[in-house]
Amino acid sequence: MIIHGFFVLALVCSISLALQDDISSESKKAEQLYIKLFKRQRAEQLDAIKNFQKVSNGKNERKSMLQLMSEKIFQVIQKSRASIESSPFIPGISEFPLDRDIQDLLSNILENTALFSEIVLRFPDIAASLLKSNNEWNITLQWSIAFCNQMKYLLDSSTIKLLSLASQELNYIPRDPDFLNPYRKDKKPQVTLGDLKSIKKKKKKIIKKGPRLSTHVEL
Ligand SMILES: *[C@@H]1O[C@H](CO)[C@@H](O)[C@H](O)[C@H]1NC(C)=O
Predict the structure, then answer these.
(1) I need a surface site. Which of 69, 145, 178, 207 has the fewest CB within 10 A?
(2) Cα separation, 197 vs 164, whole angstroms
């Protein structure tokens, strides 16, 4: 009886192990396919954004179109974030999901984060002003870039670079000493957040000295 039970148990274990292997290799296959499709999707996205750069003219027109695009982008990211966080999928831990719905949520987040990162690099001043007036977007973007970084294995190297440059442009992460936004028209070295802070400090010091001097004079 005990031996019989043992056999059954061993059998069940080996079946479930085999099943897991199957799922694992299926997941690997699906992952490879996803990587290919994502790359293609990004190429199309790049064409679209280059087209937008060509056809949109005038800063105001660009800004209002980018405002509309951003509204859509962040709406999708925020909705997908809520859904993926209530799904069994855990970024950085779960295997590539076979569930199509979860794959779609992943695509929504990865593609829209990449798209907004393109906007950040190509239209840095407009993007900064949009983020400044929509703090929720700024917070969402930091979350979604971190999410993409956890899913790096699905991204091609140019998308990984894009995310890193956008994070530096927005000072989410410290800028590399040789950081350069390749799309900025003036290729002069840029003022970093650190520089700005030290300029502000210097200004404050000068202001503080002023009144003291005048009190001294009054005495
Ligand atoms: C975005 O948020 C960070 C803090 O999380 C802040 O330092 C930065 O100034 C914000 N960016 C904009 C454009 O408002």
Answers:
(1) 178
(2) 23
